[in-house]
Amino acid sequence: MTVNLFTFNEIKKTTYAEKLYKVLGNYIFEYVFNDENEVKDGDEEKVVELLQECNQFAEALRLPELCGIYDVFRLEQDVMILYSMVTKYLIKDKQGFDKLQIITKLEHHSNL
Fold first, then answer.
1. Which of 31, 39, 95, 96 has the most CB atoms within 10 Å of its CB?
2. To 5 degrees, how large is the angle CA 33–CA 34–CA 40?
3. CA-CA distance, 47 to 34, in Å (whole number)?
4. What is the mean pLDDT of each run of 10 residues along the chain (112 residues)?
């Protein structure tokens, strides 16, 4: 695995989490549902550009790069890994938000 978990933990706290979810999800959808496991050049370029942005962000924070963007096989693996990680994070984050809303509603109703 070439994804740096420490860097990912910092990046997931930013708006890059949503961007990764959307762009990588589209890439995976195309990859899985294409008979030749190919992705349109434009979609692959979007992934590479976003990962380069994430690496630049990490560099600005003096962190190791999120992942290497050197060959297609490794890119496909990293996309799958990152998508899984960001999806789990966003689901957990949403569940925490939903739980907070329920607690707030319960507290509000108990104060009435």
1. 39
2. 115
3. 17
4. 85 92 91 82 89 94 87 76 90 78 72 68
**Shortest CA distance to 54 belongs to which of 20, 100, 26?**
20
CA-to-CA separations, 84 to 27, 36, 42, 71, in angstroms, rounded = 13, 22, 22, 20
Token pair 């992705």 is found at 39
Residue type, 21: Y
**Pair 30, 109: CB distance under 8 Å:** no
- Given a contact cutoff of 8 angstroms between Cβ atoms, the answer to whether 31 and 39 are in contact is yes
- The enclosing H or E element of 99 equals helix 72-110
Give the chain's end-to-end CA distance (angstroms, integer).
53
